[in-house]
Amino acid sequence: MKRILVVKVTSMGDVIQAQAVVADLHRAFPGVQIDWAVDEAFADILRWNPGISRVLYAPLRRFKKTRSAKDFAAIWASIKELRRERYDAVFDLHGVYKSAIISFLARAKRRFGYDNVNLGERGAAFAYSDRFAPRHDRNAWDGMRRALSEALDYPIEPVPSIVLTVPQPAVPPETVRHAPYALLFHATSKEEKKWPVANWIAVGQSLVERGVTPLLPWGTDAERDNAEAIARGVPGAHVLPKMSVVELAQCIQLSALVVGTDTGLVHLASALRRPTVMIFSATSRPHFGIDIPDLCISIGDDGRPPSVAEALGAIEHVRKPA
After folding, report:
1. Does the pLDDT at position 321 exceed 60?
2. What distances in angstroms separate CA 239 from CA 105, 181, 222, 266, one per listed residue?
3. Which InterPro entries would you find in this protein's record (predicted)?
4. Which of 79, 204, 254, 268 is the Cys-Cys partner for 214 at CB 3.0 to 4.6 Å?
5. Higher-confidence position of 239 and 147
6. Mean pLDDT along residues 262-280
């Protein structure tokens, strides 16, 4: 194979964890060029992967809300850019209408997609010439890696390799003056995935006692209010200004610890190999959790949020007190 297109459009955590297939494909097909189609919101993350030759992106999520002529024009331009190259194979790792349309429009000899029973939207089946089935006896991303390797008959390394090179800031982020610090990603888009403010306060207080400064990111006004409520209960904690994904990634790289809910930025912390504790309350830990021995760990599960004691034990596990 000389050129491959991978289609995984959203969400942030899924896109980050799926980066492992890039290293797999480069090992299997030395010299291969890999392009990736993604929603515009996550294009920067793919640019951090030196194994990706071309990032194809469009404002798909935004257009769904705005229906604006400007966003439609951007999508149309992205289609023309997509069709500029010819691919030996397209791998749709998403399995919904929008990813299927991208796969179908690409100029390719073969288009791989999930079996019908594993598609997110059954109608996506029209796009594929070849099918594969994800392995359900493993977590989502390991199962995806193994499914691709079996479809193309190549071996994979047991430990996934995700290489992301975050651009260095022109000046060090303001968080360095708080070092050593822990980023507490308390925010989540789904109410049921939240962890109680009282629990965050207890964890923050424990970190301060160890000489670690809790820092609280946020993205919306409601999340800022939540961050301020936590900070009021943790003398020494700081609410960060609103930051871009790039700025947060730069802060993650310099952190002593990351604790957060099952969200994209916590998956990013794991991919950047920072000591990380991921908290599950409403999604499946075995299916979506992170697990890097002595470095990244998941706690709780769907319908069983972890206790403060479990969180503090996990922090001890991934990081010695400062």
Report:
1. no
2. 45, 12, 13, 18
3. Glyco_trans_9, LipoPS_heptosylTferase-I, LPS_LOS_Heptosyltrfase
4. 204
5. 239
6. 97
Give the structural domain span for 218.
Answer: 174-318
- Whether residue 293 is predicted with pLDDT greater than 80 in this model: the reply is yes
On average, the pLDDT of the chain sits at: 95
Q: What gap in Å lies between CA 130 and CA 139, rounded to an integer?
A: 23
Same domain, 38 and 74: yes
**Which CATH number do you get for residue 187?**
3.40.50.2000
Q: Quick check: 262 and 190 in contact, CB under 8 A?
A: no
pLDDT score recorded for residue 52? 98
pLDDT at 94 over 80: yes
DSSP 26-76: HHHSTT-EEEEEEEGGGHHHHHT-TT-SEEEEE-HHHHHHH--HHHHHHHH
Neighbours of 203 (CB within 10 A): 24
Domain assignment present for 289: yes
DSSP state of 240: P
Burial environment of residue 243 by CB neighbours within 10 A (0 to 12, 13 to 18, 19 or more): middle
Say whether both 126 and 264 belong to one domain: no
Do the domain assignments include residue 163?
Answer: no
Structure tokens at 111: 């288009």
Confidence bin at 82 (pLDDT 50/70/90) = very high
Domain count, the chain: 2
Q: CB count, 10 Å around CB of 21?
A: 27
pLDDT of amino acid 320: 61
Q: Identify the pLDDT of residue 322.
A: 45
N residues, the chain:
322
| H runs (alpha helix) in the chain | 12-17, 20-28, 43-47, 60-66, 69-82, 97-105, 140-152, 197-209, 221-232, 245-253, 264-271, 285-288, 308-318
pTM score = 0.94
